[in-house]
Amino acid sequence: MYLQFWNLKERPFENTPDPKFLYHSAQHEEGLSRLLYVVREGKGAGLLTGTYGCGKTLLSRALSRELEGDIFKVAYITNPRLTDTEMLKTILHLLGGSQIPQGKGEILIALEKILSSNARDGKKTVVVVDEAHAIEDPLLFEEIRLLLNYQTDDSFLLTLLLLGQDELKDKVAQIKQLDQRLALRFHLAALRQEEAAGYVNHRLVIAGAKNEIFDEGALAMVFHRSGGIPRRINQICDMSLLTAMSHKSSKVTEPMVHEAVESLDK
Known about the structure:
Number of helices: 12
CATH topology of the largest domain: Rossmann fold
Mean pLDDT: 94
Largest sheet: 5 strands, parallel
Shape: elongated
Strand content: 5-15%
Distance between the termini: 21 Å
CATH superfamily of the largest domain: P-loop containing nucleotide triphosphate hydrolases
Radius of gyration: 21 Å
Order of helices and strands: HHEHEHHEHEHHEHHHH
CATH class of the largest domain: Alpha Beta
CATH architecture of the largest domain: 3-Layer(aba) Sandwich
């Protein structure tokens, strides 16, 4: 609606995990490099946690983009509210299984064959479970842990990455055999004020902005009202662009951000 007014080629603040919009703050850069290390070195498992809306899914999609090609085979689970058998079937399907058995034993055999075949071909298998904090059945965590039993004498046949909100740390800690196999624990925090300003301007540039659109007061207000949470920043900035357009302003100012937040919170 406001693209033409601001001379943008696409909407800059959509809450979708498009990797090209990933803002490389220090912590996001570190998180991505650590995830890449775990995967490339064939470690057993990694844990990425963070407050809702801090960019875990976007970071994992950026990771998936880094892993594109012939070397890595990635199964990305976006809905973990499954039974243990459904989870295994989904992983098998995403890794290229053409005929999915019904029985759990047969599924495990088929999965082991794919993992072994990938390893023989020099390929690394990665299983990413997003929103893993939503897993309520302890048996499902146990089934996920057992995937790490697929090993050769000197390496794991797959790397498991668990992503979720803060409570995931406590859930994993209760499963000692899984907790002890974590080669990575990384927590994404909210952005600091200078990072939040950089985040806003980065997304605008990616969307085609040629000039700064938010003035300093507006950026400070965005941080103050969002708490540095990227998802909330996106909501506020999207509405702020619309609000400033309605005022026919060439800049987004602090009062316009305040007005936008008030309209969002009604």
